[in-house]
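Human: I wish I could look at a protein chain and see how it folds. This is the protein in question:
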Amino acid sequence: MKKQNINRVVLIGTGAVGCSYAYSFINQGVAEELVLIDVNERRAEGEAMDLNHGAPFAPSPVKVWSGNYEDCGLADLVVITAGLPQKPGETRLDLVAKNTAIFKDIVKSVMDSGFNGIFLIATNPVDILTYVTWKESGLPKERVIGSGTTLDTARFRYMLGEYFDVDTRNVHTAIIGEHGDTELPVWSRTTIGLESMEALLNKNEKYSQKDLDDIFIQTRDAAYHIIDRKGATYYGIGMSLVRITKAILGNENAILPVSVYLDGEYGQSDVFIGAPAVVNRDGIREVMEVPLTEKEQQQFAHSVKVLKETMGA
């Protein structure tokens, strides 16, 4: 029987992204139990052994083991990072067919365990695979969440922090839309501390909209540059997933740009896509419908259209 007040997280997929998540998870003392599942059982066993050897240095006690789908029955959260990775020259949307088939098998196995918690999806194309997970699981839309544009927003905040020479944690902004080539920055709501972009550009001639547009392009294309240099991206998304996990298990009511189901918000419906949402122990408390400019609304609608066309292909 499950102990009271013990949080169990199951991680499915112990590749580079999964292990980056697990390492960050343990170092931040997120929960008491972490179960690793992988199609390569020996790999999962080895990762669990290696992670456990760092337990004496973790901020709080954590039990890590290599398990199976039966362990999902008592899990509060199942995080899926399994699937085929993006290769050099591939877009995230190129992975649709291959990873959809993998996900259908994974979600069925999880649900067969009696799982009744929250899904957190990171595998690309994340918006589409979050939709697949929702459909296959039969869970309420509030309890199926994708990493969405959390990482894109973190990249954006980092680069803007460098540009304005301020702590990145004081950059308030969001990338929304598809986690991919059609994503967009919400410039109209971006502030550095309490100052708007417009005020900063008017106040100091060393800042320019051209520079800001270049920063967004670097943000949007960051994965391609990283993959070209080291073959994959994993540290940033691992830490992004831990941030979302903490918001869920800590019942934080944190506002994060995750992949959520839209049911009329932003004039869109029947799609999972990156948008600011309040995240807590129940999953998605609400989608935050931020006022957008006409241009931003058009860009967001285009992003939705691309995702829906890809799903229907």
